[in-house]
Amino acid sequence: MTLSDSAVPTERADTLDDEPHPDDEPHPDDEPHPADETTADDVRRIIASAERLGIELDEADTLQWLSALASGALDSDITVDDASRTFGHRVSMLDFSDRDLERFRRIGAIVEVTGPEGVAESALALSGSAAQSKIQSFPGDCDYFQRLNIIAPTREEACAITARLLRDTAIERAQGLGYQFLEGKFGNYPGAGFHNGAARKAGTPITWRLPEIEAGEFVFELADGGSTTIRWNDVALDPGWCKLDWIVCDAERGALSNASNVIDVTWEAPDGQIVALDGYLDAYFQEVYLDAEDVPIFAKVAAFVDDDALDVYVDRLQGEVRKYLTKHLNYGKAAKRMYNIFRLSGRHVDAAFVRELFDEPATVLYQIWSLIGALENATQPGSSIPLDAIEDQTDSLIMQVVDTLEGEDEHEIVRALLKLRRTLAKHDDGEARLAEVEAAQQRVVNLVNTFFREKLVELPSIRSYIEEMQAGEAIA
Question: Environment class of residue 112 by beta-carbon count within 10 Å: exposed (0-12), middle (13-18) or buried (19+)?
């Protein structure tokens, strides 16, 4: 879709205030609109469902959010928040809080890929639960999304520049005070085979560990018994899905987090045309960008997003929901994606119900599941993350479980975390370590699944949606 000059930006920070703008107040003589009456009825219905589940839902706040969500067009509505100097799609900005913005900017300085002025242009954004911090009280990882626009005479040169910038970023920020590089994804496997002991399919993203990035190559064991050398620069012409991962330690919060940056690389040709190096220019319906000065770069690139970007984005989310409701059962991950589907496809009442679930104390379990993985990453050989930070994080997780759960569920997870704490403190490696991490995560994810499933199926429309997805039926 093409963003018009008037669409970037047209709304200002007053559209994000918790209190309605005076100009938006209804006149006493105004007649109620039929849609308003329907919305009120729908809200009362989901409030009744929430009360049966012991969930507090504020009617006035929900009505205000639904009204804000329903107003305006979805396809070209970009909002700039003057106070925080952030921007994003209007729907995304409704769920963003700037309370941890400086922390996200500090981590963003670690994960952002940068390059020479006039060659590499960047706009860095938050995505996932980090971009929905107003409603997700217990977010998981620090997920970033970056638009990296490379200005070059040819696509081949743009690919070469991309390869160099990604590699330089990984090596230069391999480790430092409070952070450790984990791995990167760049290029695609040329065939089926084995890499670092794991089976890989042809055409899937190549996972590079730091020593392999530094060497610029590694040996790939082919499924037929042979081997081939995969070189960083050789895969640059088909970069595929580009992603860099770190583990970060926040000293102020005493917390560990996985920090990832998905980089959508584009090439700007001499004639001004912009194309994605992976063949698809991502939509912008979930990101919150960290610097309003990047609006011109964002607008220039977003002008080349396909007209059907919203439909494609929702379809992709549908596929992920189906996966997490069937093959890789995780109702927590499914709920997060269902929320984005509902709010972008007109199912606003369903979105309002799911939105309230993210603020429930039991959803801290989703964060615990994610942080167990962060603990494992922080104790890899050669990690720069101090042991006391790892121990503090584990102790914090145990206390969160104690505060949230009770009975056998609490005892079972606390025992698993205590056992994991001892294993990680000894920096044990191999199968025993992996087994402890997986066991602790499985105990938590079982409770996450129970919590979200019980709550989601309470609303008939969402229950029907889940049943259709699990049955593999098309969702209208």
Answer: buried
Q: Which DSSP symbol is given to 21?
A: P
- Higher-pLDDT residue of 107 and 3 is 107
Cβ–Cβ under 8 Å, residues 21 and 312: no
Which pLDDT score is estimated for 30?
Answer: 38
Overall size of the chain counted in residues = 476
375-379: which pairs have CB atoms within 8 A and are 24 or more residues apart? 375/256, 375/420, 375/424, 375/437, 376/424, 376/433, 376/437, 377/180, 377/182, 377/247, 377/258, 378/180, 378/247, 378/249, 378/256, 379/424, 379/427
In angstroms, the CA 383 to CA 111 distance is: 17
Comparison of pLDDT for 254 and 400, the residue scoring more: 400
Task: Find the helix packing angle between 431-456 and 460-471, rounded to 10°.
Answer: 130
- What pTM was computed for the model? 0.81
For residue 83, the model assigns a pLDDT of: 94
Which pLDDT belongs to residue 212?
A: 97
- CA pair distance 94, 74, nearest whole angstrom: 13
Cα–Cα distance measured from residue 171 to residue 166, given in angstroms and rounded to the nearest whole number: 9
The rounded mean pLDDT for the chain is 82
| Mean pLDDT within 399-416 | 78
Tell me phi and psi for residue 334, to 5 degrees: -60, -40
Write out the H or E segment, with its range, that includes residue 219: strand 217-222
The span from the CA of 301 to the CA of 193, in Å, is 36
Q: How many CB atoms lie within 10 A of CB 395?
A: 14
In contact, 367 and 448? CB cutoff 8 Å: no
Backbone angles phi, psi at 178, to 5 degrees: 85, 10
The reported pLDDT for the residue numbered 26 is: 36
d(CA 146, CA 34): 42
- CB within 8 Å of 71: residues ≥ 6 apart: none
SS3 content of the chain, % helix, strand, coil (to 5): 50, 20, 35
Residue 304 confidence (pLDDT): 94
Closest to 232 measured CA to CA, from 160, 147, 280, 172: 160
Tell me whether the omega of the peptide bond preceding residue 211 falls within 30 degrees of 0, making it cis. no
Task: Give me the mean pLDDT over the 104-120 stretch.
Answer: 96
Report the pLDDT value the prediction gives residue 233, as an integer from 0 to 100.
96
Residue type at 6 in one-letter notation: S
